[in-house]
Design a protein that fits this description.
By secondary structure, the chain is an all-alpha fold. The N and C termini lie far apart (85 Å). The chain contains two helices and no strands.
């Protein structure tokens, strides 16, 4: 019975799960930021490509 009480009051597993959830939320935020940045980078590269093509012609 003492083992069961000790097991139910142990919060080490809950802390690990919380850290895992925080890490997953940070990853989702980073992925969303990178997707927005990739759209801006594609626009910048297209602008540079157009400028170089016009300069060569």
């Amino acid at each position: 019975m003492l083992y069961l009480k000790k097991f139910l009051s142990d919060e080490d597993g809950a802390t690990a799960i919380e850290y895992g959830l925080i890490a997953s939320l940070i990853s989702v935020g980073a992925i969303a930021a990178m997707r927005g940045l990739s759209d801006a980078m594609n626009d910048a590269y297209a602008l540079i490509s157009t400028a170089v093509s016009n300069a060569v012609n």
